[in-house]
Specification:
Length: 434
């Protein structure tokens, strides 16, 4: 069995192993995460709460209407001296007063505070949308990173499968050579030790692979025992440009947009504070029914009903200079919001620049490690044939074998690291494909 037959056999085994399992694509994994992830659901509910609050009534622009009823009763022992000098006494005198009706209160003007409040409610909704986007980008990014980590682990499992088969072939060849007297027992033992080492590495890699699958199922908020396989290749976008990414960060990054919205909210807070300098004008109206009964007095019963209305106004004339203090605090908070925007933008652009340099390095490493893998493969092919006919020592064979497996692992890891950099760059720019 030569090297190419080994590879064919590995592919055949892998195909048989994954048959019947769910083939989970990245697109499907992202879709499941958006639908099921607990953090995303919580952020969606918070946005729904903010959306419900956007209304003129919540901002205090509409009148309030309420029904009222009051029923007072008393039983008393009374003694009265009237203006003509006569006296009247009665024990257990009953008195009853019943009033009911509807009343409406409406603030007509409050220094435009209600309009600022409505705009603030809208900004809270916008902030909720940005925060939801930020959570989605973070969680989708985590899913993508874990997904591609599984892809590279699958590739490493395939590489370890190939090296184990080669090690088994080496043990068989060494045993045959020992049997016919062309090799020592030491060569057989060395080959067996190397095979055991490769099998140990395989067990560790399978453990890591199984644990990473559990981690992905957790991120997808589904049964942790769900069996699946992922794609076999990692495709890296090598066309990302730093100026375009910087422009996207400034315009699309959800953290930066959240700071901008917070600044607008601070502006509206200050506007509401300044509204206290103006009078508050309100109107009241209602329709009431009344009935009273008294066992003793000039009037033993009375009934009333009617419409009432009125207007009022309040104006703060002096509050210990608290108005000035509140406005000064509002202006300082607004200044802090502007500083937060500048600071956040600088931090994001700094992270973007360093990540982009890592991205470029990883792209170049992909080409280098791909070349190294091809060289290591060619060297292993030649070494296998030389070992078969017994013209090289076992140490040289093992060195070629390890060089090949290490080259495959480094090539797979280089692609994964480049993809990781790409995902982070797209997260920062708010342009992650979801």
């Amino acid at each position: 069995m030569n090297y190419y037959r080994i590879i064919f056999f590995i592919v055949f085994l892998v195909g048989c192993n994954v048959r019947g399992q769910e083939v989970l694509s990245l697109h499907e994994a992202v879709k499941i995460a958006i639908e099921n992830n607990y953090s995303i659901i919580t952020a969606s509910n918070n946005l729904a709460i903010d959306s419900i609050g956007v209304s003129p009534g919540y901002a205090g622009m509409l009148p309030t209407l309420e029904a009222r009823i009051t029923d007072n009763n008393s039983v008393q022992n009374l003694s009265q001296t009237r203006s003509d000098g006569s006296q009247v006494e009665q024990d257990n005198a009953k008195n009853n007063s019943l009033n009911y009706g509807v009343a409406m209160d409406w603030t007509l003007f409050d220094g435009l505070r209600m309009f600022a409040n409505l705009e603030q409610l809208k900004q809270n909704q916008n902030l909720g949308e940005v925060e939801l986007k930020q959570v989605i980008l973070a969680k989708v990014g985590e899913v993508m990173i874990t997904y591609y980590d599984l892809v590279q682990q699958q590739q490493q499992l395939t590489a370890l499968d190939s090296t184990i088969l080669i090690s088994k072939q080496r043990v068989e060849l060494a045993q045959n050579r020992f049997t016919i007297g062309k090799a020592s027992k030491l060569e057989v033992l060395n080959a067996q030790v190397d095979l055991n080492t490769d099998q140990t590495l395989m067990q560790r890699q399978r453990e890591l692979y199984a644990n990473t699958k559990i981690q992905l199922n957790e991120q997808l908020a589904r049964d942790l025992k769900t069996a699946f396989v992922v794609a076999t290749e990692i495709n890296v976008d090598e066309s990302l440009l730093l100026p375009e990414l910087e422009a996207d960060v400034i315009s699309n990054n959800p953290q930066l947009n959240a700071e901008r919205i917070n600044k607008r909210i601070n502006e509206l807070d200050l506007k509401q504070v300044r509204a206290a300098r103006y009078p508050t004008i309100f109107a009241t109206t209602g329709y009431n029914f009344g009935r009273s009964e008294s066992s003793l007095g000039f009037t033993t019963s009375a009934n009333s009903r009617g419409f009432n209305y009125g207007f009022g106004a309040t104006l703060n004339l002096f509050d210990g200079f608290n108005q000035n203090r509140n406005e000064k605090i509002g202006r300082l908070e607004l200044e802090n919001a502007e500083i937060a925007i500048a600071q956040q933008q600088q931090e994001l652009l700094s992270i973007l620049s360093t990540t982009y340099q890592t991205y470029l390095t990883n792209i170049s490493l992909i080409e280098l490690e791909e070349s190294n893998e091809a060289i290591a493969k060619e060297n292993l092919d030649i070494t296998v044939e030389k070992y078969r006919i017994g013209i090289i020592p076992t140490l040289e064979f093992r060195t070629a074998q390890l060089n090949y497996i290490n080259a495959k692992v480094r090539f797979s890891n280089a692609k994964f690291q480049a993809k990781l950099s790409e995902i982070i760059l797209r997260q920062l720019s708010g342009d992650l494909d979801i």
